[in-house]
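FORM 7B: Structural annotation worksheet

SECTION A. Query
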Amino acid sequence: MNSIDNVCAILALEHHKLSVDTAIEILDLSARDMSAATTRLFEEVPEPVLLEIIAQEMGYTYVNLSAAHSGLKSDSTLMTMVDPVMLRRYSALPMRDLLGRVAVVVANPTDPDLRNYLAKVFDSPQILLGSHSQIQAR
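SECTION B. Predicted structure
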């Protein structure tokens, strides 16, 4: 289990998604078997829950693109404005929110290159945190 997984386990504990005993078990297991510790963490706290916690800690909104009502919709016009290679490289997906505003779901909202690129293409887009795998699947 790498340091990112350790941080996720601690955040999950702080946000009451893991019991103290389970968090200690996972952190102890990480010293012996990183893969098993990561698997155990995700058995206890699913990826969407961890991403919600991380988004909250960073001051972003998390969007589960697999949810039936994410509050976002695809917009083919937005897709013509962006370079698909850039979207893939940075795991970014431009969409529209319910009010018609541009919202870009990204896997790493702090990436300065991505933020600079989006600022050049869109006028003040809302940046939302999403799952890398869900973004890439779109």
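SECTION C. Observations
The CA atoms of residues 22 and 83 lie 44 Å apart. The two ends are 29 Å apart (CA to CA).

SECTION D. Sign-off
Analyst initials: ____
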